[in-house]
Design a protein that fits this description.
253 residues; alpha+beta
């Protein structure tokens, strides 16, 4: 019997089973291959057990001469057994993970098992940040609803994030902290979330603001609520002069 399964097309390209292990995504179909040759008589089993310490169950019982096929109820409507080559197709649920093997009637129960890993695909992540202000820390958070995520990867303006103390990663690299934010930190940040069966990427355009601009905007909003419009105009003129002078000193090159 072949030692590997065939990964279905609904999984990510480039993913392939190796050795006696098969990886599949929830909702996809994995195909366990049949033997090198088939018989015209006898009985064939596809067996399953959750781990080495559990008694095996007969997922499929096939009587070759009569073409009679019995399928375990838990697998009904999810299994395709090919009577011409004895391969087994299975549409995956998380509970299907475990050990599988094909056994003929004359074979003992010491045959080789195939390990099936079933993984839930990662969902489209969300990416958000706090207010990014010059001189303060900026936090970007990348989150997905799937618990088992193998890797988070960050990019800035399409390039891998530089490895330096200015950037700090935490919580399995799902949180990016930018220390002492500067003008050069503004740009497009992307977060790539992946596991063995798929990946997704999300991007966010990060602006950088001056703390003084924020304070002046708040002051103007408060003044606008005043009934004395002449006060607003005078304040606007004075604040505008301050902003212009400050920008000349602190504007990016």
């Amino acid at each position: 019997m072949g030692s590997v399964g065939i990964v279905s097309a609904c999984q990510s390209t480039g993913l392939a089973p190796t050795g006696d292990r098969v990886v599949g995504a929830v909702g996809c179909t994995v195909v366990f291959p049949g033997p090198d040759h088939i018989d015209t008589t006898g009985v064939v089993w596809w067996e399953y057990k959750q781990n080495e310490n559990i008694t095996e169950l007969s997922v499929v019982l096939y009587y070759v001469e009569s073409w009679k096929l019995d399928i375990l109820p838990a697998y009904k409507d999810r299994i395709v057994f090919n009577m011409s080559n004895w391969s087994l197709g299975l549409k995956l649920q998380l509970a299907d993970r475990g050990l599988y093997r094909l056994r003929r009637e004359e074979e003992d129960k010491n045959g080789k098992w195939i390990q099936l890993e079933v993984i839930e695909p990662v969902s489209q992540p969300e990416l958000w940040s706090n207010l990014s202000l010059i001189g303060l820390s900026t936090e970007l958070v990348c989150s997905t609803s799937v618990e088992k995520v193998a890797k988070y990867q960050w990019k800035k303006d399409g390039k891998p994030l530089p490895i330096e103390s200015h950037y700090q990663l935490s919580q399995n690299n799902s949180v990016l902290l930018i220390l002492n934010t500067t003008w050069s930190d503004k740009g497009s940040y992307s977060c790539n979330v992946s596991n063995e069966v798929n990946w997704h990427e999300v991007s966010l355009e990060l602006p950088v603001q001056l703390l003084l601009f924020l304070e002046l905007h708040q002051q103007r909003t408060q003044l606008a609520d005043s009934a004395d419009l002449s006060v607003v105009h005078k304040k606007d003129h004075r604040l505008g002069s301050v902003v212009k002078a400050f920008s000349q000193v602190h504007s990016p090159p």
